[in-house]
């Protein structure tokens, strides 16, 4: 197919609209083009693979802080660089200029809130939040995260609020949110996402607020929002979405706010979408 396309566009047309390149010349040029294109394609695939591998290795090399069940766990927690508040069972590492998780920080197993917002984290070890079964709120916004391991949130079955906005995430594994069965608020806005796996939110059936704005999304899978009957606030603004499958909204019976501004939608499609939403939700 690539070779045929090249032959079609590589002809030098004469006055009588006849291709003046011979068949052999066209074939030779076509082979050179195919080889060059093939090398470039392989090179791009290799670069992508190496980048992903490098990020995965980098996450494995990240330090993991220690979790404690000891009686003095909150006292020990306060000796680290983060601020620990036993009354609210919260840990704030907010705006500490951290390039990685502080390995000397003790994390009580019964922590409710961990705030890692506004730091310089680029990735996190897959075991960073392991066994934190009581955690309900996790802030990772405004960092430099470009990779998150597939299993990083697996143990956070009671997490209700996860904020990942303002990072450098270009893709997310389809299973990354599969441990978040009780999630209510999920903010992954202002990253670099170009697409989302269709089943990435499958277990997030209790979600109330989902923000995807400020990414580079071009398409929305038809089943992306299935079973989200409690979703009230959906923001997909500031993306590159050119077409929205109407079926994507069919189960959103609680939807109160929908923001699709600053996308590639045509005016007629916007009007049709609004009419459909009025009659079906």
Automatic annotation (TrEMBL):
The domain of life for this entry's organism is Eukaryota
Give the UniProt keywords, A-Z: Leucine-rich repeat, Repeat, Signal
Phosphoprotein in keyword set: no
Recorded protein name is: Uncharacterized protein
Return the SUPFAM superfamilies for the record.
L domain-like
UniProt key word Signal = yes
């Amino acid at each position: 197919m690539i070779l045929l396309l090249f032959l079609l566009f590589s002809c030098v047309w004469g006055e009588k609209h006849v291709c003046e390149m011979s068949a052999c010349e066209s074939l030779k040029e076509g082979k050179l083009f195919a080889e060059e294109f093939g090398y470039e394609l392989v090179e791009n695939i290799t670069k992508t693979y190496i980048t992903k591998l490098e990020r995965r290795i980098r996450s494995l090399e990240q330090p993991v802080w220690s979790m404690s069940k000891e009686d003095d766990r909150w006292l020990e927690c306060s000796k680290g660089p983060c601020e620990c508040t036993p009354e609210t069972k919260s840990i704030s590492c907010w705006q500490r200029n951290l390039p990685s998780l502080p390995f000397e920080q003790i994390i009580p197993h019964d922590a409710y809130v961990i705030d890692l917002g506004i730091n310089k984290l680029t990735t996190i070890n897959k075991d960073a939040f392991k066994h934190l079964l009581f955690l309900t709120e996790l802030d990772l916004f405004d960092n430099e995260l470009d990779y998150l391991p597939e299993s990083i949130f697996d143990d956070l079955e009671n997490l209700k609020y996860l904020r990942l906005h303002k990072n450098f995430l270009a893709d997310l594994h389809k299973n990354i949110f599969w441990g978040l069965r009780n999630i209510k608020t999920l903010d992954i806005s202002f990253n670099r996402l170009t697409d989302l796996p269709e089943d990435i939110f499958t277990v997030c059936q209790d979600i109330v607020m989902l923000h995807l704005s400020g990414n580079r999304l071009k398409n929305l899978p038809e089943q992306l929002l299935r079973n989200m009957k409690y979703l009230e606030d959906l923001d997909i603004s500031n993306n590159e979405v050119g077409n929205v499958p109407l079926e994507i909204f069919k189960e959103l019976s609680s939807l109160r706010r929908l923001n699709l501004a600053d996308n590639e939608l045509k005016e007629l499609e916007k009007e049709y979408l609004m009419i459909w939403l009025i009659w079906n939700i």
